[in-house]
Specification:
Blueprint (H helix, E strand, L loop, with lengths): L7 E3 L11 H15 L3 E3 L5 E2 L10 E3 L19 H13 L3 E6 L3 E2 L4 E11 L2 E17 L19 E6 L2 E5 L21 E3 L4 H18 L3 E4 L8 H14 L4 E4 L6 H10 L5 E3 L1 H13 L13 H4 L4 E4 L20 H9 L5 E5 H5 L1 E7 L2 E7 L3 H14 L4 E4 L5 E6 L8 E6 L4 E6 L6 E4 L8 E2 L5 E6 L4 E6 L1
Parallel strand pairs: 1-2, 1-16, 2-5, 5-12, 12-13, 13-14, 14-15, 15-16
Antiparallel strand pairs: 3-4, 6-11, 7-8, 7-10, 9-10, 9-11, 17-18, 19-20, 20-21, 21-26, 22-25, 23-24, 23-26
Helix pairs in contact: 1-2, 3-4, 8-10
Length: about 475
């Protein structure tokens, strides 16, 4: 028995080589990923960043340059050329994968010219509080896109298309501009994040963002979007933008937003404001995993889903273990420790709540050098591909029928799926302390089970009532499949 159980992969990490080869790599791996159980790919920003091939893509310069024009010292982006990107999208879709493009609408960076602007200094910790008086200042706010010219869009961006800009560590608000409402309340008003902050009340700016959505879909035929930094953008904007794109394409156009907050109430409010029109990454669950990996046996596994989005709104939760922002040397570094990674992936892949996302660096591993706080580091992230592949296969075959949860003890929990339509049953057991055993019901009488993780050699047989003492090793997960 095999049914589609959606799993996306974030097909990049922050410290990939700046060699322009990711799109070519994807072409070679798309079929293999689909066959492993991945059903969709979240690709990194495909357009030109202000640091050229050194830009991961979030320092967006020109949304219309997908690696086609000589701008910012290069033609290709960090990941490749426009044609290579289009070929990678096509190859992925032909392999059976959906493709989600990364959208950065919050800001622009790397302006081409300065403009004289009337501004006022804003308190960094209270964006509604101004410091000093209005004054004239030359700011980098004019985007001419000289390498692209007027191709695809005739619009040049000027200071009036933004509400604020940060230069030399100071946030300057433009004359007659106000920060957006319905944004995150950190720093009182967290509209501004970086670069030149787009003014979502400016009609020319909005028109171009809508036009870009149509142009990008026509060019790429992607299946959906991962939307960056949504807590800094007026939430109502995406209601209209997504409605427009879905009507324009005649497709569902999946969307997931990055609202980076561990506060479930803030995520709930965003879901309310956007009327559930996009999924949200389950950041609270990531932090639960991180905390559990740090505390070890001192963490109560029964609480792993407490105050998470997948617990509150499972159909709108995209669950993740780590991502490009949480990996070592990033400002949001909160890496889930390696020993806990298989346990965390069991929680998101071997249950049916939420839409799980596998991280490239967890799947393939990652090795890179970098600095933080004036110190140099050699980073090694181990590959968990073997175990993730095992879980992906089990997800597609055994996560069906009645699920029974056994979350009664602090350091050892588990669950079972009974199977349906002649399918086999499955038992999952997790311990964050010593080797453990847990009596669980599978719904199958006198059935024999084997641990396919190979942690436990002996087989287990349920009694006449369908119960058995399933076991696992210290600090690990075992996956028992009915023979």
């Amino acid at each position: 028995m095999s049914k589609v159980r959606g799993v996306m992969m974030q097909f990049f990490h922050w410290n990939l080589p700046n060699d322009g080869n990711l799109w070519k790599e994807l072409i070679t791996k798309a079929k293999e990923l689909y066959e492993s159980g991945i059903t969709a790919l979240w690709l990194p920003p495909a357009y030109k960043g202000w640091q050229g091939m050194n830009d991961v893509g979030y320092g967006v310069y020109d949304l219309y340059d997908l690696g086609e024009f000589e701008q910012k010292g290069c033609v290709k982006t960090k990941y490749g050329s426009k044609q290579e990107f289009l070929d990678a999208v096509k190859a992925s879709q032909e392999a059976g994968l959906q493709v989600y493009a990364d959208v950065v609408f919050n800001h622009k960076m790397g302006a081409d010219k300065q403009e004289r602007v009337s501004v006022i200094h804003v308190n960094y910790e209270n964006r509604n509080e101004v410091v000093g008086d209005w004054h004239e200042r030359d700011l980098w706010t004019h985007y001419t896109f000289e390498g692209r010219g007027k191709k695809y869009s005739e619009m040049e961006w000027h200071w009036w298309h933004f509400d604020a800009s940060k230069e030399h560590g100071i946030i300057y608000k433009m004359k007659d501009k106000q920060f957006e409402t319905h944004v995150d309340s950190e720093n009182v008003n967290y509209d501004f994040l970086m670069g030149c902050d787009l003014d979502m009340n400016n009609e020319e700016a909005l028109k171009d963002l809508y036009h870009w959505g149509e142009w990008f879909y026509d060019m790429t035929k992607v299946d959906g979007f991962r939307i960056d930094a949504i807590k800094h953008i007026r939430s109502f904007f995406f209601n209209g933008w997504l409605d427009h794109l879905r009507k324009y394409t005649g497709k569902e156009m999946f969307a997931v937003g990055e609202y980076w907050s561990s506060d479930l109430n803030r995520l709930k409010k965003y879901i309310h404001d956007t009327e559930g029109k996009m999924a949200i990454f389950d950041v609270p669950l990531h932090y639960n995993f991180h905390e559990a990996s740090i505390k070890g046996r001192d963490y109560d596994l029964r609480r792993i889903f407490d105050n998470t989005l997948v617990q509150f709104a499972p159909t709108l939760a995209v669950t993740l273990v780590d991502n490009h922002d949480t990996q070592p040397l990033q400002s949001l570094e909160s890496l889930v420790e390696a020993w806990f990674k298989p346990l965390a992936y069991a929680f998101i892949l071997l249950r049916t709540d939420g839409y799980p996302c596998v991280f490239y660096a967890d799947y393939y591993g990652a090795q890179y050098k970098g600095s933080k706080n004036h110190n140099e580091y050699d980073i090694l992230m181990h590959s968990h591909k073997w175990m993730i592949d095992l879980f992906l296969d089990a997800r597609s075959k055994y996560t069906f029928g009645i699920r029974r949860d056994f979350f009664e003890t602090r350091n050892c929990i588990g669950w079972t799926f009974e199977g349906e339509e002649g399918g086999k049953s499955m038992a999952v057991i997790i311990s964050n302390a010593e080797e453990a055993s847990l009596w669980m019901e599978t719904g199958k009488e006198n059935a024999v089970y084997k641990d396919i993780t190979n942690h436990i050699d002996k087989k287990i047989t349920t009694n006449e009532f369908g119960w058995a003492p399933f076991s696992c090793k210290s600090g690990s997960v075992s996956l028992w499949i009915e023979e």
